[in-house]
Specification:
Elements (H helix, E strand, L loop, with lengths): L1 H21 L9 H32 L5 H37 L5 H36 L6 H4 L5 H14 L4 H13 L3 H14 L4 H14 L5 H17 L4 H13 L3 H13 L6 H14 L7
Length: 309
């Protein structure tokens, strides 16, 4: 009785596994190299979405003072470097996908022989190799679980070459200048390389694509204050405009309030700058280097001295 039960179970398994091979489907079962490629494409797309969320969270943490400037720039470059590689790989898949589809269409009726051969192979594998398959699956799970080895993701990243990454982004954006995420990435990268004019052009393009992009407004205000706003009233006005736009989204962000205070100082509106920096001081943990910087700036401002940044 027991052998009969086992036989029926095996036949049921064979039938289930063979169904995708027997029926004609618009989405045939992928095997061999095609299955590997499809799995890699899915994994890359998941990683792309994860990196985009991570970059967004990093921006928020930096704007809230939870991440130092050095860590922010280091992590940002690492994530963006990986994201560029993923986007390039996904582009390669999109180009080769059309060729693969053409090859699939060229298959004729003779492929049915391969289907029946595969069914026979499945039956033999199920009947004779079930214990081995069981061990193989669990070996794969164990390998996947231990492959990281507890090594932090930041240590697994390849060395970052910002110049090479910018060159690749420039080539990408030349073909598609309306790529919002690409413009954000290259704007940050230009800033890290202190290519301020190029950075301004990139952030202006971001705002052209998304006028409410508060990070772009923040970056524009910061770049103008770094380069010309302290000496040119027109740039100081523009910096104040962008910073006020950023404050709509993050009204209690000390770093944005700090920049607004500087734009007001540049415009000679010192009383308003005092109010803004006093508010910023309330949102910064006391005893930190940042709180001491704001405190010293307020003391100099009230003493009639030009604050030091």
């Amino acid at each position: 009785m027991f052998p009969a039960i086992i036989t029926f179970m095996l036949l049921g398994v064979v039938a289930m596994l063979a169904m995708p091979l027997i029926r004609r489907s618009a989405n045939p079962l992928l095997v061999g190299n095609e299955a590997d490629i499809d799995e890699e494409r899915v994994n890359l797309d998941i990683e792309r979405q994860t990196l985009l969320r991570t970059l967004s969270e990093l921006e928020v943490n930096y704007s809230q003072g939870k991440v130092s400037l050095g860590d922010y720039e280091r992590l940002k470059l690492g994530y963006e470097h990986r994201l560029v590689n993923i986007l390039d790989r996904l582009d390669a898949f999109s180009r080769t996908g059309k060729i693969t589809q053409k090859k699939k269409k060229s298959r004729g009726p003779s492929s049915n022989k391969g289907h029946w051969l595969a069914i026979g192979m499945i039956g033999l594998l199920v009947a004779a190799g079930s214990p081995g398959i069981y061990e193989l699956v669990y070996w794969k799970f164990d390998r996947d679980a231990t492959s990281g080895g507890g090594v932090p993701a930041s240590q697994q990243m390849p060395p970052i070459d910002p110049v090479a990454m910018v060159a690749r982004l420039e080539k990408r954006l030349k073909e598609n200048p309306d790529d919002l995420q690409g413009q954000v990435m290259i704007g940050r990268s230009y800033g890290a390389l202190e290519r301020w004019e190029d950075a301004k052009a990139a952030w202006r393009k971001v705002l052209e694509l998304d006028p409410r992009h508060y990070i772009a407004h923040f970056q524009m205000g910061e770049i103008l204050l770094r380069t010309s706003a302290l000496t040119d009233p027109r740039d100081a006005e523009e910096a104040l405009f962008h910073i006020d736009k950023a404050l709509i989204v993050t009204p209690q962000d000390a770093s944005v309030l700090w920049l607004k205070g500087w734009s007001l100082v540049a415009l000679g509106r010192t009383f308003e700058a005092d109010e803004i920096w006093t508010e910023a001081f309330q949102y910064i943990p006391q005893g930190t280097e940042e709180s001491e910087t704001v405190k010293k700036a307020l003391q100099n401002l009230r003493a009639g001295k030009f604050p030091s940044s």
